[in-house]
Structure formats: structure tokens, C-alpha cells
Amino acid sequence: MHYYIVTGASRGLGEAFVEEILQKDHTVICLSRSINSSLQQVAEQRESTIRFEACDLSDTSQVLSAIERVLSSINFKAAEKITLVNNAGTINPIKKGDMQMNMLLFHT
């Protein structure tokens, strides 16, 4: 049994990655703010297991709780491989740099 824990799996790059790894004998655990019903359908068609854990990864208490749920659901004796794909992230608003910084960026 291969386990994949994927953050930010409900859309975009995370969704595409999950779609690629959904195979028989794979369990994919998705940490995201929402559930992706089309991925659930793909999992059913491919006889794969997918679970969504609702989690706002910018909230530490939610992350700790989700990780506890994820780890308690893994059968470590049967696990051949456990892979973490950390696809989610946050970025502060990007501010305009000063002219010198912009010059450095374009000249390197």
C-alpha cells in the first residue's frame, strides 16, 4: 500500500498531481479547504482510495488536528511508502520593489 498526503489538492497543480497518482493500492489523503468531487469520481473509477481532510493550512491549530487524523488513519505495518507532497502555500502581498532591486532582478 502506498500512501500519499497531498496539501492544496482541491484544484490547480495539486488536483492534477492527485489525478495522476490515483491508482489501485494507493491511498491519497488530501489536505485542503474544500472537497473535489471530480477527484472522488476518478478514485472510484480507478479503484483507488481518496480522503479529504478539511484544513486551512494557514491555521496552525487546524493543521495539528488534521495531521493527527491523517496519522491515525495510516496502517503503518501495511505501508510500503508514505509520500508527502506539500503543494499548498501562502504568500504575502507582493509589493513593488525600488528601482535598484528591479534592476538587480533583470540583470542577473
| Number of strand segments | 4
Helical content band: 25-40%
Uncertain stretches = none
How many helices? The count is 4
> Strands of the largest sheet, in order across it?
3-2-1-4
Largest sheet, strands/sense/barrel = 4 strands, parallel
Report the mean per-residue pLDDT as an integer.
86
H/E element string? EHEHEHEH
Rg over alpha carbons: 18 Å
Oligomer: single chain
Strand content: 15-25%
Structure description:
This protein is α/β, with parallel strands linked by helices and 108 residues long. 39% of the residues lie in helices and 23% in strands. The protein has four helices and four strands; from the N terminus they run E-H-E-H-E-H-E-H. The protein has helices at residues 12-21, 37-45, 60-73, 99-107; strands at residues 2-7, 26-32, 49-54, 81-86. Strand 2 (26-32), helix 2 (37-45) and strand 3 (49-54) form a beta-alpha-beta unit. The longest helix has 14 residues, at 60-73. The mean pLDDT is 86.
